[in-house]
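Human: Respectfully, please carefully check these tokens:
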Amino acid sequence: MNKINQFIDKHLGIIFLIPGLSIIVFILAYPVITNIFISFTNKHLIYKGYKFVGLENYITILGEEIFTEAMINTFVFTFASIFFQLLIGLITALILNKQLKGIIFFRLALIIPYAFPPIVIALLWKWLLSKMYGVYNFFLINLNIIEQPIPWLGSPDFSMTAVVVVNVWFGFPLFTLGILAGLQSIPSEQYEVARIEGANWYQTFWYVTLPNILTIVGIIIILRTIWVFNTFDLIYVLTGGGPLNSTMTLPIYSYLVGWKNGLLGETAAVAIFLFLILIVFTFFYFRLFKIDEDEYGKN
């Protein structure tokens, strides 16, 4: 009995964690394992029963041209969105970090995109970008910038750009708020030393500001990459993956295969590809920012 009590006392922290960890493992592991299993079967959404088909689902989707288009579109949409969200977020954060009159109002205005569900945002932008009654076409025509309305969401030439713009508008405040928090945590003494040493604004930013916000920027990039890569609702409401598959991404492709065609095995295989790609990107980002931290630490 004493040995049992000693064991419990020694491992009490772990024992308390077991129930919560068990629930988390079940919630996370069960869907992943089930999805991996289904990807090797011909399971259908409607028909009962299924059989093991090995790598057939993977071979099938890899051989489809639309899968390649969806893959390319996903990368274009993700990297374009992240780049401009980071760029605009950084510039906005540097501006909002200044002690200007009424700056609190603009800081609070940043949360507006997150005050509404993504579907509401998508419907609003779909109205703004409409060829027939869109506000943007109205102003551009009245300013004599264009002669006739542009089908922003109805043309393969403009649809991806329009979707990226909407996603950038929706996502850059997260970068702004995160970077702004990092900027406000930088000791003022560091800027004072840079000023005494005669550093210009570029040198101050590169050697003082950037090293201090690099970690938080890396974390936000990782999170936003995962979220943007899996974006479904925003694109689906705006374009549905069209026109002519110009905005077809892997999440939308997976939805159409699984819920429109009922091929659960193939849609599970697409999900596995998404999972593996995100693992690679996450590993790369962690390695990238770890290397940067080591370099700055040595300096």
Q: What stands out?
A: The chain has a mean pLDDT of 86. Residues 8 and 16 are 10 Å apart (CA to CA).
